[in-house]
Amino acid sequence: MPPPLPLPIPIPIPVPFPFLFSSTRLRLLSRRSVRMESTVRSPLPYGNACTTCARAKCRCVPRSGGGGRCERCHRLNKECRVSQGRRKTLPKTLSRSVQLERKMDGLMSLLASSGGRTDLPTPVQRQPEVQGMGQTEVESEREDEETLASEEESLHAFRTQQLQFLPLIHIPATTTAGDLKRQSPFLWRCISAVESKHTARQATLCVRIRELAGKRLLVDCDKSLDLLQGVLVYLAWVTLHSHPQKSSLCMYSQMAIGLVFELGLNKPPPPDLSMTVSNSNAVGHMPGLEASISTRRTMNERRAVLSCFVLTSIIAQFLGRMEPLQWTPHMKQCLDILADSEESPSDGVLVQFTRTRLLADQIFQGPWSEGLYSLNSAQTLAAFHFKALQSRLETIKAEIPIQLADNKPILFHLYDTELSLHEAALVNPLADEEFSPQRLDHLYACLHVVKRFFDLFFTIPPSGYTSLALPYLTQVSHCLVTLFRLSTLDYPGWDKSTVKSTADILVIAEQIATRMGQVADAVGMRSEGVYGDPFSKLGMMMQKLRSEWAVRLPECPEVVADQSSGEPFSSSIEMGDLDWFMNWSEMGWAMEGAGAGGFIQ
């Protein structure tokens, strides 16, 4: 019997698209139908959506039945709040062409208002702010042009006028004020102060210069040729305008000497920067430090070190309490190179200044000068000393080039040095000395040198006095001191009436005071309030000195006239008047005839 057949296994019949009949799909379809119904209503306009939809960046569709809530907030059961603020629309940025057109409209209106003619059509409507913008730009450009012109004028005046009296730097004619301002900013500040014709602005510039010099030199310990040149300009010219203390001459002189040492200008440049002290320390080589000493000497560095020697030598003799920059063999080499240089015509002038000051230092440092400005007797100048020094002076005169034979600055220095050589005769004679022909020869030589000096000084017009550097003012004071002592000296065979007929100190002082009072008007210098120009104050000081001298000079008929003029003069110089000029004091030499080569001791 065959085995029974197996029962048939029921095979499930596949239902087509079962997903269409699932419960999930049915729920989705129901929601979709709701959404489709809601999409029939248009959403709110942009910017009117509720806060919830705006944050979610969804469309805000209001409900058909109302209720105060949108469809989304109703479905999510959230609070539906209408946004309070509205987004601000930024103004449309004008295109570049429109901006240019408006600027042209402003310029056209400016030209039309100034009477200018143009073939371009004038716009009918103009924006007032654009018109004002055009006027401001034109005025700004005009001010910039005036500033540039003023700076170029100041640089030209300094190059052609001031530097002829002390050529401490060579500024080529091709160098503009902008170039110098970028290359030497501190030097340019000092030049601007020297050339300023407005006393209040000049005083402000002088204060800024001192503050900047103190910061860079003492705080930052900076050292550069720019700083050295600026300090030299300050000593030579700015000192007169800044009304400083007398001690500032000594301090700024030491700053200049210190910069010369730090820059190594008094010694030959090293062949390798690693040999310099500023680029190494006790531990070893420090390649990260930038050395301030260069390996190649420039011409302006040579001019700077020689000018520093000349200035500090004159100031040291004037003050009588400091040492000048010491002369070195390398400085002699710099002097010889400048003597053969043809880069600048003023180099020959600086060479003659330096040679003359070397001789003046030898005279001033001699033992015979110890009693020259004191009441104590000192060793007199020996005949062989005098002949050697006089021979050197004649050699310096003979070596002056022909084109510089009549150079006024050189002649001023020669006269001052010659006066220092002969005034050794003013040392108080010994008690047993009755008569000395050599002493009389020196005294008369002093008198004639003083006369030649002031004859040359009065050939300079008042407008040229602003170019005079500090050394020339000390030379004027030196000659006045010597002339006063010659006018009051009691010595056998010495004729005071000859002194008065040759060089009357009262007449000379009156001329100096008058010409100094004319300087401000001659150069267009403007004064405001307490900021008076220094030259007028110097003239007032000379008037008071003249009155004091008139009281002490013998056989002076002008004393009564001065006392009856009604202007009160005290028996001694008022210190406030001297503060007007340079705040120098201790005018003992004016009363007793003893001084230190200057207006004051």
UniProtKB/TrEMBL annotation:
Residues 113-150 are annotated as: Disordered. PANTHER family: FINGER DOMAIN PROTEIN, PUTATIVE-RELATED, MISCELLANEOUS ZN(II)2CYS6 TRANSCRIPTION FACTOR (EUROFUNG)-RELATED. GO terms for cellular component: nucleus. Residues 49-80 form the Zn(2)-C6 fungal-type domain. It comes from Penicillium polonicum. It is found in: Nucleus. This is Zn(2)-C6 fungal-type domain-containing protein. Keywords: DNA-binding, Nucleus, Transcription, Transcription regulation.
